[in-house]
Specification:
This protein is mainly alpha-helical. Helix 4 crosses helix 5 and helix 5 packs across helix 10. It is globular.
């Protein structure tokens, strides 16, 4: 007579309700192509790892953080000085935010150059593009939360740019600020956006992106498709490699946070002059530097507005890449698009560098 163990009974109970066997079957049968570009497959997982670190460390910070102009700076100071390992958690949170954006950009460019967006993965690319925009939103909204001098004036500059948009600009700026200027109301709004609105939207796009990746599998680059591409089982081979990468990333995060702890700066004072040489975080620098170089008036269009229109069209083109590249549908290389991609990459790198040295 066969008697089920408690473990088997619990497993069967869960299987009937949430379909564990289907998930297990998917993991066991999934295959990952092996070729000379396989290393790029790990960047999506690395971005996901940094996002998970953001969630975990963000929850710990929420236990002590107080989102008001009177208490925000002091609560972060309390985390860094009085809470055991609070300084480490905050530093890891800040470093992982920067690494998440770094890996997201590298992941996007690798997918672009490998044409991994081509049919039937158009929606995988679109959902990934929106995740990149949301990551930038996390960076922008989270920057103000320590309520220090740099964050205050950087947010003023950022929301001023919003105000330059025709027709709806002033309304957008007022909604973002919670008034005409950056105040405690702005801090409260950015906090709500950072911990509630953006995570809710990001969860939807992240689950959609992961589901699409699972459904369509890993793309084989053009040129490798008709070669004798070997396959690797996702579980345990690829998953273990991912785990090694995540462990290394965690070690690097701890080293960065320990050796270069994230500074808090000086408490925000709206009446104080703007700090000299103020600039946004590195992932916004190429846009910031571009706006500095555009003249105040180009023909009949204000310079900042021209820059905003240009970046908006660039963002739209990024989302529509799979539908613009008709050659990729026919499994052909598109040299024009490849050149455009390299020009954009070099432009972003050069203008980011200029923001620090010019």
């Amino acid at each position: 007579m066969n008697e089920r163990t408690p473990k088997a009974s619990v497993g069967a109970w869960l299987d009937r309700r949430i379909g564990l066997s289907a998930l297990k079957s998917l993991a066991m049968h999934k295959q990952v192509p092996m070729h000379r570009h396989s290393i790029w497959y790990y960047l999506g997982g690395m971005t996901l790892f940094c996002f998970l670190v953001q969630i975990i460390t963000g929850i710990f910070l929420l236990l002590y953080y107080r989102p008001t102009a009177e208490a925000a700076f002091e609560s972060v100071e309390f985390i860094m000085t009085d809470v055991r390992f609070g300084w480490l958690v905050r530093s890891i949170h800040s470093w992982s935010a920067n690494l998440m954006l770094f890996f997201a950009f590298v992941h996007m460019f690798s997918v672009f150059f490998l044409r991994a967006y081509r049919r039937p993965r158009e929606l995988t690319w679109v959902s990934g593009a929106f995740l990149l925009f949301l990551s930038l939103g996390f960076g922008f909204s989270g920057y103000l939360l320590p309520w220090n001098q740099l964050a205050l004036f950087a947010t003023k500059v950022g929301t001023d740019i919003l105000g330059e948009i025709p027709l709806i600009g002033h309304w957008l700026m007022t909604v973002a600020r919670g008034g005409d200027d950056v105040t405690g109301a702005t801090l409260t709004r950015f906090f709500g956006i950072h911990v509630a609105v953006l995570p809710m939207i990001a969860t939807f796009f992240l689950l959609s992106h992961l589901a699409l990746v699972q459904k369509e599998g890993m793309s084989v680059p053009i040129g490798e498709r008709y070669k004798n591409v070997r396959m690797m089982p996702f579980f345990p081979n690829f998953a273990l490699r991912d785990l090694v990468g995540w462990t290394l990333a965690l070690g690097i995060l701890v080293i960065l946070a320990s050796v270069f702890p994230w500074e808090l700066g000086v408490k925000a004072d709206p009446l104080a002059p703007a700090p000299a040489g103020i600039r946004p975080e590195w992932y916004f620098c190429f846009m910031f530097q571009t706006l500095k170089y555009i003249p105040g008036q180009v023909l009949f269009i204000p310079g900042e507005l021209l820059g905003i229109i240009g970046f908006s069209l660039g963002g739209l083109a990024l989302v529509l890449v799979p539908f613009l590249d008709r050659k990729a549908v026919r499994e052909e290389r598109n040299r024009v698009l490849a050149v455009i991609g390299w020009v954009v990459l070099v432009y972003m790198a050069v203008f980011t560098l200029l923001a620090y040295v010019a």
